[in-house]
């Protein structure tokens, strides 16, 4: 699961990503009165917070799971992002906004000239309404939390199962575990190799010995196109709760057992210090679907996901923007330690 990104050698338009970002940082370019533009950079996007709206610009990058080097590919994923997120955040994702250029070679937002880029436009949601903020500040609105859990459970009920055979699903899990192991033991990360090896062997052993358990998840049609990145910071406890940032760039990464996604969410809540929220979402899901998930399966998925998150944190040290930030390796080691805690409970 190595990840190399390549900034686009601009062939589909005449403006670089730096020029586009510099333009969008200016308050006066927006078609409404904007006093300030706040920005956030991620691996794959630039995000611009402007008054009551948010604009997302996808970077012209390539990873092993996506290729955004052309305008056409970025447009395709912009459209997919809006479509997918309508199911869990219908009122948040507004639509596409073009970034255009004039005949004089100047950029415009929503102009009539040549389209140079596409942006996803969204309604702004205050960070104070996010579940991770509520956990950190111990201010969870229980009624809104219940509505968010029901929203997710109903989404799982309505989403059709993915056509996948039992052996195919187990092969997929095995491949993910092995690939993540190979990624985690890279020397640059300086993570405890013997611990990671022990965790990997535990996962593979459990997968082998409890083959029927995974067969049941497939036969019960619990493998769906899920959210794909269900973390507390994506659960918004607004008056009408929504769940944002459904993963759009890879269908393969969205194909999950509902139990795995809920386990991932619970694990992330536990990383923030809350050990009951995950159980609350599990219980709501079980009440709505009559799917009583085996506790050992939950531990298996938690270990698997904690190892993945360890890698996603550790890989920052190989990227120029983050090399000097030791916080990422600290976080990666915290995920490994959490996986060890689960490992002590899980029996094979």
From TrEMBL:
PANTHER family: GLUCONOKINASE (PTHR43883:SF1), SLR0207 PROTEIN (PTHR43883). SUPFAM superfamilies: Protein kinase-like (PK-like). It comes from the Bacteria. This is Aminoglycoside phosphotransferase domain-containing protein. InterPro entries: Cell-binding_unc_protein, Kinase-like_dom_sf. It comes from Panacibacter ginsenosidivorans.
